[in-house]
Structures are given as C-alpha cells and as structure tokens.
Amino acid sequence: MELTDSNNLAKQIKHWGLELGFQQVGITDTNLSDAEQHLQHWLAQDYHGELDYMHRHGLKRSRPALLHEGTISVISVRMDYLPESATAMANTLADATVAYISRYALGRDYHKILRKRLQKLADKIQAEIGNFGYRAFVDSAPVLEKALAEKAGLGWIGKHSNVINRKAGSWFFLGEIYTDLPLPTDTPATTHCGACVACLDICPTQAIVAPYQVDARRCVSYLTIELHGAIPVEFRPLIGNRIYGCDDCQLVCPWNRFAKLTHEGDFNPRHSLNTQQLLDVFAWPEDEFLSKTEGSAIRRIGYARWLRNIAVALGNAPTSNAVINALKSRLDNDSEMVREHIQWALDQHLILS
Fold first, then answer.
1. Which of this chain's residues are annotated to bind cob(II)alamin (predicted)?
2. 251 among the known binding-site residues?
C-alpha cells in the first residue's frame, strides 16, 4: 500500500468509526516495550491477585504480533458510556440503603456492543480495499488496551490506571482492531495529571498504592467482581454499599467535568439498577437475578457472589429490623461462602445494637 493510499485509508477509517458511534478512533504501532516493563513490575509485586490470566499468556499481551500473527498496526477506539450525572452517582453512594453498581454495568454488556461495531468497521475497510488480515478485541483477550489507546492518542493513563481524555474524561470503553495494514500512526497522548492525587486519596480501600500502581487485591472492583471466594474481613467495612465494582476514582477526577452523557440507549440503566434498594436486590431469587441481569456484564459473577456482595453492603447499612430479618432469612443458603458473609453482616448489627 502506497503512503498516499494508507493516509487516505486512515482518514476513512476514522470517519467510518465516528459514523458507527465511536467518539474517537486512533492508530498506533505495536511497540509496547515501556508498557511491558510496567506490566512485568506489576506482576512481580503480585498486584494481580487471582487474575491469573494477566500472566498466563506470557508476552502475547504486550507483543501484539504474538497474539495475532502479522499485526503491524492497531486501530484503537473509544465509546462513551456515562449514563447519569456525577451528582446522581454521589447521591447513591451517600445513601447506605441503596445498592451502588459501577455505572459501566448498568446497561447492556459493552463487549457485545463494541464488538459488533468493530466488525462493521472491519467490513467497511474490507469493502474498500479487499481482504486483509485483522482481529477485533473488546476486553476479551491478552491485550494492553490502555497502553494502546494512549499510544493511539485517545488519552493518557491516569494515576488510577484508567485512560483519561482531556475533552471527555474517562467514562468510556475501549476496543481494538489488530491488522496487517501499514497505517500511519497518531501522536501518543501526553500525561496531564500533574500533582493531583485525588484518586489516590478517595479510594475506599487505598488500592492505588502509588501513582499508576493499583494493587488489585485491595480494589473494590476486584473484590466484588473478580474474587471468587471470601472477601477479606478487613475490606468489608470499607466497601460500603458498592455491590458491583467501584467508580470513586473516576467520580473525583477533575477531568471528568468534561465528560458527556452517553447517546447509546443500550448503556442506560436497566431494571432501575441505578436506584435499587439493597433489601430489594437481596430478596431476588436466582431466577429473578438471572432475568434482570440478562445481557448484562453483572451476570458473570453469578448468584452466590451477588448475594455475598449484598450481604456485605447490608452489614454496612444502618441497623434496622428489616435488615436483620432479611439477613437471617438467608442464613440457610446452600453456599458456605454466602452464609459466612451473612453471619458477618449480622454480627455488625449485633455489635451496634
């Protein structure tokens, strides 16, 4: 492909991406040597906890051509997902009787939405130039998506490890197309966190142990989503009413004053998941949990971890007969893990009463 042709194709790819609903499209090469060093240091500290997949694939994560042979360029995209205002989110977090679910998970599973759009983008490229080598990813394989997004100019990796865009904040999803096309690359984003440490200070469990270093073993998102067993007792009081993930570091980030609400209806809350009472979601039988999380990222944790997380939140809720009775009503749960967390929650209220 001649240079003029590749430049024109890159412009078309970005235009098509915007037409498909992405807010930004960037292109980068596959040199992730700096990110590879950062990843190896992070793994050496055991900050990944039970995230075994972070080292299972060796260097495929930081060397794209090892994951998809022939890759020389990466098309990186972002899509905004913010479903409500910062004030609404803060109000939910402040009400200990309401369940807080990370805002990325309130609507339809983003994996499916972005993957379909990326396939449509690949189809448009193929219709223009003929067959080419590619593979699309949305948080579904050993891909250093944040490092690629930074190199592609979509934003910089902030001190909380999320990607931040100067004009759009950090409330967005990322996706990639690995390709064998020799495309011109964009200018990498530069860091603009400055001396700000708001995200480090706000983290409920102090999981951001240093700028750009997150100890997943302490992170509420890890504890409520990735961790399969018991949540360590020392973190339970700190989790508050967060039953699936955590957004605190994004809520406090000053760059998110530029974030815009999403135009994607699929990212809007389903089944009032942004305002559900803890007692109500704790009362859901398994079939209702499965029904109301159908097509959602939430379903991946399963019913037992759902109850585990809510039990912890109820242990942190104001003491009332309704809370105590709800917890007691589930003490016969089949899962030993769930029973243990329910008993812990009951003990919190007995200590206070």
1. 61, 139, 163, 174, 221, 246-247
2. no
**How many beta carbons lie within 10 A of that of residue 173, not counting itself?**
22
On whether 279 is known to bind a ligand per the annotation, the reply is: no
CA-to-CA distance for 347 and 324, rounded, in angstroms?
10
Encode burial over 239-271: b for 16+ CB neighbours within 10 A, e otherwise. bbbbbbbbbbbbbbbebbeebeebebeebebbe
106 φ, ψ to 5°?
-75, -30
State the burial class of residue 297 (Cβ atoms within 10 Å of its Cβ: 0-12, 13-18, 19+).
buried
Please say if 280 is a catalytic residue. Answer: no
The active-site residue, picked from 139, 180, 266, 280, is 139
Which ranges in the chain are annotated with CATH 3.40.109? 3-83+106-179
Is 246 annotated in some ligand binding site? yes
pLDDT per position as a tens digit, 30-75: 999 999 999 999 989 998 888 787 777 778 999 999 999 999 999 9
Q: Is residue 39 a known part of a binding site?
A: no
Predicted TM-score (pTM) of the model is: 0.95
